[in-house]
Amino acid sequence: MRPIQELTQTVDEMGAGNLTARVNVKGSDDIAVLGSHFNNMAEKIENNIFVIQRDAQAKQDFVDNFAHELKSPITSIYGFAEYIQKANVPAQEVEECMEFIMDESSRLLHLSYTLLDMAEIRKKRIAMEHVPVQRLFAGIRKSLGQKAESCCVSLDFYNDTENIYGNESLLQSLLYNLIHNGICACQKGGKVIVSAEYADEKFHLIVKDNGCGIPQNEIDKITEPFYRIDKGRNRSEGRTGLGLSLCRQIAVLHSAEMVFHSEEGKGTEVIIYFP
């Protein structure tokens, strides 16, 4: 009866919360086979619990970060509105306060729209088609050309293929966020290069800049929602910290892999491998 007693004791340990408890399997009789099956089951339970805990922590982190993102603009909006209401404020200051309130409200609106986009992407299936790469690049050049010019950053496109199979609006959003990040990372005189090529039976989209780069210990975190490397600078530019998280979702929907190569002070290269 000793093997059965050991098995019962291990079950009690797992029931008490010790998910690492395992049966000491000896021999090859029926009890040993039962113990081996139990250990396999316990291994799967432990792995599943780890995944559940990890996902729960990710959701909690998202809620915490979201609350933090809301706190700053809402506090500012309320403070300026209260100042206008209760103080004898000159017309010039009222105008400045209203401008600030509108800027912060615009940032909140942009944040809510981005979150809605992410929710919609998760919920529905997307329509895929063959999208001309030239048309994709033309749309990005139109939306970000002025931004690059105002930052004194050159924006160059190189196309080695005709079409990409995917959803055009989502691919536009993917490229827009990556290129916008590249422009913001560059100093005056910097450059962002966008390439489309077909190699090794895969379609590659590449966005490369010679900007400030990303620290190696930050690369694995940059696609997390609300994660920022330079928190103060990004907030002052009205950015939400959701762009790369949205890019990751779009890549997953296209069964694509998004890889970052970066070095501080030298720049960043993002490669999206499409099947």
Q: Summed up, what is this model?
A:
This protein has 275 residues and is α+β, with helices and mostly antiparallel strands. It has seven helices and seven strands, in the order αααβαββαββααββ. The protein has helices at residues 2-15, 30-86, 91-123, 133-150, 168-185, 231-236, 243-253; strands spanning 129-132, 154-159, 163-166, 191-199, 202-209, 257-263, 267-274.
Q: What's the Cα radius of gyration? A: 26 Å
Order of helices and strands: HHHEHEEHEEHHEE
Largest sheet: 5 strands, mixed
Give the structural class.
alpha+beta
In what order do the strands lie side by side in the largest sheet?
2-4-5-7-6
Please report which band the strand proportion falls in: under 5%, 5-15%, 15-25%, 25-35%, 35-45% or over 45%.
Answer: 15-25%
Number of helices in the DSSP assignment: 7
